[in-house]
Each structure stands twice: as structure tokens, then as C-alpha cells.
Amino acid sequence: MPFDRHGASAPSCTLCPFRQACRHAGGDSALRASAPLAPGRVRLRAGDVLYAQGRPTLAVYPVRSGGIKQVYESHLGWRQVSGFFQCGDVCGLEANEPATHSASAVALQDTECCSIPIESVHGSLADPGLRPAIQGNLRRQASRQAELLVAIGSMKASQRLAMLLLDLAAEQARRGITDGELTLAMTRNDIASYLGLTLETVSRLLSRFRSVGLITVRHRMLRIVDPDGLAEVHADPERIALRGPGD
Amino acid sequence: MPFDRHGASAPSCTLCPFRQACRHAGGDSALRASAPLAPGRVRLRAGDVLYAQGRPTLAVYPVRSGGIKQVYESHLGWRQVSGFFQCGDVCGLEANEPATHSASAVALQDTECCSIPIESVHGSLADPGLRPAIQGNLRRQASRQAELLVAIGSMKASQRLAMLLLDLAAEQARRGITDGELTLAMTRNDIASYLGLTLETVSRLLSRFRSVGLITVRHRMLRIVDPDGLAEVHADPERIALRGPGD
DNA sequence: CGCAGCTTTGAGTGTGATCAAATACGGTGG
DNA sequence: CCACCGTATTTGATCACACTCAAAGCTGCG
């Protein structure tokens, strides 16, 4: 069975701050060989753990293909999805360079990552060419985290979901894909956990968004038909409710 | 009228990583003098803005007395309290040393802060004596933010409030005060915003906690009577509900 | 003394959770 | 290739938690 059955397109990792290092480590030959993986590359299947919360930070992992979810577990054992990573994102990169991972990373599908030793990252921070890219990465993450906190804290379910969809679309746009096509690598449950909802609510809202013509969605394939409409939902909860006119 | 009417006790800033620098800048004489404030010190009254989100980061502000709330405003204008700072905490210290403040800081009461120029902070990061303290500070902040996200995302109101009270008590303990006495510098509204609730819910829960003997509370004075009980509430939502037996 | 802001408490409602069942899909093995 | 099974998803019915609206009390301050 081929490893990557989902037909991931050629990685467009031009956004990855470490793309130079990636090219050196491993090399494309490792991609085609089914032999033991060359150093600097990690292959994961759905559900595999890239690294676990609390374990020493040995490396960071730019995603080359596939998808990763970041899962945080509180000290009482409550678990919550705290982020999604796709091609071009750097997984495991954290502010303050803590000695241990502050969250776990789990593959959502067949996924391939580079592996940059943490010492090498420290070196890259001195590189005036890489430092801004890395810091920009960290800033975007922090910003998203803050927006998420506000969303979960005070926005309605429909607003939160609209926010996520717009966010995912914006990520796609950063990669140059602007047609509104999205492939949701994560399950409804992952989305629900990320947004502080239940999977039923997410499913119902997606159906509702579709029924009013904001999106088309079938399983993991999603297309944003009306971005402006979604933005209005994000801004105004009244515009779309779980139960409203047209039921 | 004296500036500090609330009778803040002598600052026990032994936790502040910058306490050495504080002592040099300004000096205690500035405290007693009603003359113009010496450089390196900032005095605020309730509601005053220490710094605003998006403005350039010029300095960090260790709190010497009083209280500060951190307020984040999303790009759509949704505001949420994202943290509280008291004596010994360092306000404005952020990971990645971003060029602009990622949130605002507003005084909750009459407050006095030191003012450490940001360049000086950069220097301190090289100091092997200060760096661990500063990074520990940042790590605690990040950890609290993550716990808060999980709490708001998936815990009941009573659990969230119990968490905050235990957190505040733990902070007091770090300062050496272990009798469970707390003075809430923030309003019910601030607490509600921080926890993703409404002020009525917070008020009702405090009353309920009191009625079952977990705490005593009168306005801003709060005493934790049964820390273990609170911890159980934090772990198990069933233990205390907004509406339950004994109404 | 009166005003303004904060807090408490009450009554009613709505959103989203919970419980439950049916369906569809993907992977596996016969 | 097809039957099977576990997982993911959809949809429905009901319920509870927390929000909303409302009013009154308390505190501090001018």
C-alpha cells in the first residue's frame, strides 16, 4: 500500500523558514526510497504522535505534507486541540525555547515532516535571514491563540466556526490557493475541541452554513462559496443561529 | 488626598526578576516625595492605561503595589481580560520581544510600577542570573494561558471560578501569604470577562461557594476556607452547580 | 445627601449539550 | 469483489446551564 494515499500535491513549502535546511537534510531521494528513513525526515500515519507534551524538545518539525493537530492536556487531564498545522507550518516551534514540549503533536493523516535539531534552530535565530521568518511564525501563532481565547470566551458557536473557516481559507491563500477549496484534515470532533463546542454542534452548523448558501461541504471536502457572508456571520451572531428561520 | 488610600502593604517584590534594577532606578526616596516622579517609576490610578495594545514596546513594568489587568482586543473589537498582575509580576514582558504590545494594561486600583527600558531587558536576558527568572516568568504566563483556554473551552462555570480562586491563592502563597486571605482588586465584570462568563454568573457562584462553606466573601474581601473543597469543585463540576440542592 | 458604579438576587429564556438512532464511509479479511 | 466492522457523520428530541432582562441594595465619593 502506498504511504500517501490521499494524493497530497507537491509540497509548496515556500513559507517554511527552514526550507533551505530541509533541502540539505534527507534530500528528495529519501522520499522515493522505502528504505529506512534518512535522518532529518519523519513519516507519520494518522494518529501517530510526533512528540508528546512534557517530553524534551529535541527538534522542530516543518510539515512537508499532510496535517498535524496540536493537543494540550491540562494538569487535571482535560485535553483540547489547540492548533492545526499544515504544509509550511513549523510544528514544535515555541517561544522561549522551553526545554520540554508544552503540547503534543498528533498526525491527522499520513504526514511527512522535516526534523530540525533544536541546536540548529538556536543557530538559525542568529541568522538575520531566518530570524524574522521564525519570529513571524511565532507571532502568528500567538495572535491566533489570543483570537481563539476571545472567540471561545465570548462568541457564539456560529461565529467561532466561521472564524475557523475563514482562518483556514486565509492559510490556503498564503499558499497561493484562493479558490476557496479546503480539505479538512481534522474530524468534526477535532474542530469541536478546538472551538470549545461539541461535534454535534459543529456538524449542525456546517449543515446550516450549507443550507443558507455560505459553503458547500461533503465530508472533508469544503468550499467557501460566500466569504463575505461568512465574515458577516463572524462579526454578527444573529445572522446565523443554530435554530433560526428556515428550519 | 493621599495617593494610595487602599493601604497597600510594603511591597514584597522578592519575586521580581528586576528587583535589583528597580532599586537603582528611582529609589525609595521617590516613594515618599510627592514631587515629580523620578524616572523609572510610574504611578497609576484606577482605570489608567499603563500601555495600549499595538503601541511600541518601550519598557516592561514590574508591579510594586496595586493591581493591573491585561486586556486583549481582537481585530473585530471584542475585548477580553486576559490576565491579572500584582506585586512581583512583570507587566508587558512578552515572549519573542515583539515590537508592539500585544495587549493593553489597565490599572485596577492605585498602582505603582517600575519602568525598565526594553533595551535594558535585552541586556538582562544575557545575564545568567536574570535569564532563568525572566524565562520562568514567561513560562508561567504561557502555562496559565493554556490552562485558561482549556477551562473556558470545556469546563463548567463553577470549575472555572474555582480554578481562578485557587490560582490567586497560589500566587499569594508564592509571596509567602498562606492564610487564604485574598483581596480581589478586579470587579466581578473583570473576573467574568477573564473566565468567559457574565458578571451575574460570577456573583451567583461566589454566593453559592460561600453558602456551602468553601469561602467567605464580602465585596472584594475573600477568604478561602476549604481549599481542598475548591480543588474538588475544580476537578468535578457536579460538586457545585449554579442551581443545585439547597436552593 | 444624592449620585454613580458595583454587587446581589430573581424570573424567564435560549443556546448548545446530552442522549439516541440512523446512515455513510474506509479499511480489512474472506 | 464483496461482506463486514469500526469510525465518522448527520439528524432528531430533550434538557440544563448560563445568559438576558430587571430591580433592588450597598458602597464610596462628590
Give the topology, please.
The structure is a homodimer of 247-residue chains.
Chain A: H1 19-24, H2 29-32, E1 41-44, E2 49-51, E3 59-65, E4 68-73, E5 79-85, E6 90-91, E7 104-107, E8 111-114, E9 116-117, H3 118-126, H4 131-154, H5 157-174, E10 181-183, H6 188-195, H7 199-211, E11 215-218, E12 221-224, H8 227-235
Antiparallel strand pairs in A: 1-8, 2-7, 3-6, 3-8, 3-9, 4-5, 4-7, 10-12, 11-12
Helix pairs in contact in A: 5-8, 6-7
Chain A binds a DNA duplex (30 and 30 nucleotides) through residues 156-157, 187-189, 197-201, 203-204, 206-207, 219, 241-243.
What does this structure look like?
The structure is a homodimer of 247-residue chains. Chain A contains 8 helices and 12 strands. In chain A, strands 1, 3, 6, 8 and 9 form a 5-stranded antiparallel beta sheet that branches. Chain A has a 4-stranded antiparallel beta sheet with strand order 2-7-4-5. With 247 residues, chain A is an alpha+beta fold. The longest helix of chain A is centred in the middle third of the chain and has 24 residues. In chain A, helix 5 crosses helix 8 and helix 6 crosses helix 7. Chain A is globular. Chain A has 2 domains: 145 residues, Jelly Rolls, CATH 2.60.120.10; 87 residues, Arc Repressor Mutant, subunit A (Orthogonal Bundle). In chain A, strand 11 and strand 12 form a beta hairpin. The N and C termini of chain A lie far apart (45 Å). The N terminus of chain A is likely disordered. The first copy, chain A, binds a DNA duplex (30 and 30 nucleotides) through helix 7.
